Amino acid sequence: MPPETGLRIPQDNRFVLSNARVPTELVADPPPGATRDAEGALLLDLLVQNGRIAALFPAGMAPETACRVDLEGRHLWPAFIDMHTHLDCGHAIPRVRPDGTIHGGFSLTAEDWPRWTDEDLDLRMEFGIRCAHAHGVSALRSHVDSETLAYSQRHWRALDRLRAKWAGKVDLQGVTICAMEAWIGPEARALADLAADMGGILGGVTDTLDRGENGTYDALGQALDRLFALAGERELDVDLHVDQTEDLSAFTIPEIAKARLRSGFKGRVVLGHCVNLSLMPPEVIDRTLALAREADLAFVSMPTPMMYLMDRKPGRTPRWRGVTTANEIRAAGLPLAIGGDNCRDAWFAYGDHDMLDTLKQAIRVFQADEPLTGSLAMASRVPADLIGRPDLGRIGADLPANLVIFQARSLNVILARDQADRIVLKNGRQVTDPLPQHHELEAALGLLDTAS
Asked: Are 240 and 349 part of one and the same domain?
């Protein structure tokens, strides 16, 4: 059932959402004459027609020829984009009991792999998609576990099944995740071909390779060169897991930037995590971001799981926040998105694929609220561009009417309260699907007897 908010979204093919309050940074082309509130949000009318936004008008100026829904100053945002998830790992609790460490994430996931049948993957992955859909996410990029070609084939097939099933509601994109050694191994070409055939892109984990005896990342350089070559041949983008620990010796952003520059690779390169950058001296941070800018790199941060994992020591409170240098990245003019990352699996025990919650966490932990300018786009406009979907993550004429309407009349209230009564529209139609129930998933997976 939809939330009880006093609003009724018509089933008509043409209607107006009037007196909406929309953050300026989320509007593609503001109409002339629109006024702004004290927080800088635009006051707008939206004409929705055949599932798309036909036009934007200053508040109160839309034509009277269509049914009107007066939002009375409620905030209206584009649907969210989550560009960094792990659907195939997710929702394995209670059969997986995370210990809160990176090493535990690796080992417990590997122990769980034999249970990842087609049915198991479909049930757990679709549970995550259903959560995201109900919370107002319109696109997900999921990293597809590909430690072997056989595993990769099974996981890609699962994503492909769900992509077809959820088309038009939640767009799914996949990216290969494997140790970087795989890209200089015998299955490298087959892994790349599989990702290309499945409409995905290439990735890997750069901090799995140790430095050589001479202190250089020779093996990583070779793997990156091969990865960029394979991606370039297939015209695929690259999305990497980078520097996910506090180990300052495992610092690979400069190596990636140099490899991208020497390869001449033309696609988009996104670096995820990059947490130990925040532990580097200021001059190293500045030098690294200058190199990243020269190499045209983009970044995505996953604040919630990283705060959970980083600097975890038994009996001791963490001494650092576990996130990358978000404000410095943005000040350097580099794109920065946020992602939900792992959800209820061996890596992170919590989460619900709610990108509003992720955005709130990011704003607080980055201290990105004074001012908020540019911060809201981290969960919508920026990731939409990075996944190659400039039609999503913003509000504008002739764009899909994928929208989230909040009860809140101010940004402060959006960030202060959970907004569980939000209204979600996909292609102009109100989403009435409820959030899925965890006990139902556990029953389907045969896990109820193991639940605590």
From this structure: yes
For residues 69 and 162, membership in a common domain is answered with no
129/230 same-domain check:
yes
CA dihedral 104, 256, 85, 387 (to 10 degrees): 180
Domain at 24, CATH number: 2.30.40.10
Are the C-beta atoms of residues 292 and 334 closer than 8 Å to each other?
yes
Q: Is 5 inside a domain boundary?
A: no
What is the amino acid identity at position 378? M
Let me know how long the chain is. 452
Tell me the C-alpha distance between 139 and 98, whole Å: 27
Tokens for 373, please give them.
């300018």
What's the CATH number where 188 sits? 3.20.20.140
Q: Does the residue 6 lie in any domain? A: no
Sign of the alpha-carbon dihedral angle for 442, 443, 449, 452: positive
Contacts with 203 (C-beta within 8 Å, 6 or more apart), sequence order: 143, 175, 176, 177, 178, 238, 239, 240, 241
The Cα 45–Cα 43 span in angstroms is 7
Considering the domain architecture, whether residues 353 and 423 belong to the same structural domain is answered as no
Is 410 inside a domain boundary? yes
Distance CA 261, CA 258 (A): 5
List the domain range (segments joined by +) for residue 423: 14-78+394-430
Its pTM stands at 0.95
Do residues 230 and 260 share a domain?
A: yes
Distance CA 136, CA 3 (A): 13
73 shares its domain with 166: no
Range 151-154 contact pairs with CB under 8 angstroms and sequence separation of 24 or more: 151/113, 151/116, 152/176, 152/178, 152/191, 152/194, 153/194, 154/116, 154/118, 154/121
Count CB-CB contacts under 10 A for residue 250.
18
Q: Say if residue 254 is in the same domain as residue 398.
A: no
> What is the Cα–Cα distance from 25 to 73, expressed in whole angstroms?
17
Examine the domain organization and report whether 86 and 74 are in the same domain: no
In order along the chain (452 residues), what is the average pLDDT of each group of 10 residues?
72 96 97 96 98 97 91 98 98 95 92 95 98 98 95 97 98 97 96 98 86 66 97 98 91 96 98 97 98 98 96 94 97 98 97 98 95 95 98 98 98 96 97 96 83 40
